[in-house]
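Write out this protein's structure.
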Amino acid sequence: MTGDLGLVAALLLGALAVLALSYIARWVLLERRRARAPGEVAPGLVPSGVGFVTNFFDTLGVGSFAPTTAAFKLFGLVPDEKIPGTLNVGHALPTVVQALIFIAVVRVDPLTLVLMIAAAVAGAWLGAGIVSRLPRRAIQVGMGVALVVAATLYIMANLGWIPGGGTASSLTGGLLVLAVIVNFLLGALMTLGVGLYAPCLILVSLLGMNPIAAFPIMMGCCAFLMPVAGLRFVKAGRYELRAALGLALGGIPGVLIAAFIVKQLPMNWLRWMVAVVVLYTALAMLNAARRRPAASGEAA
């Protein structure tokens, strides 16, 4: 069994390395065709700082999508309709680094790990094709609702309503089928800006797994699905390049410092702060969607 775990982990790590290199090459190729001016490419300090902070706490299990969306709204960095794509494109490489670390360190049943990752990737591929074609108002409404859900999850974690989980490192039978189905849906929702970390942690805990097992699962899922989804957004042009580059360049150092130096922090106070900020951002997003038809002369 240990040999199987080691072989699967090695194959996943190799696949992640190949995927990351392919993602970078494809991203560069697609952008070179657009012949952007130099000023449109430089990431800037603010997006890089956002990438560092959000990926630092992402590595510790907080999640990066909701806090990054809040920062984008606060600083006016990214138009609402381009936020989902920017999140998936920019956070892809830092998340790959997270997955490389946690898949190598934390042992999980190989069948459970591979099937849940495959389900999330399939969901993301399908979801990205839909979200990349959605109009601005639909994305505002979808992200507003998603952020309300994210804030609720943060509050549940602080109040201790999220189950503590069991000790299992694998799933079998009907529980495994259920986990695969739910993870497919979570992968699709990732493309709308709904972070997978908190829902995945709740899922594996409800099914009786050790919550530590959620880290290689949720990070592996995101590391494989985000490059897949991200390239669809890049191809469609539905993302902000400077912000995405900032997330990537600032995010990787944040991951390494969190994983190898800090390792653990008391997170309750941070989750309360993030919950408040995310809830405010959700209401602002929904309010913008509500006001837009009247402002643009569209029919309600």
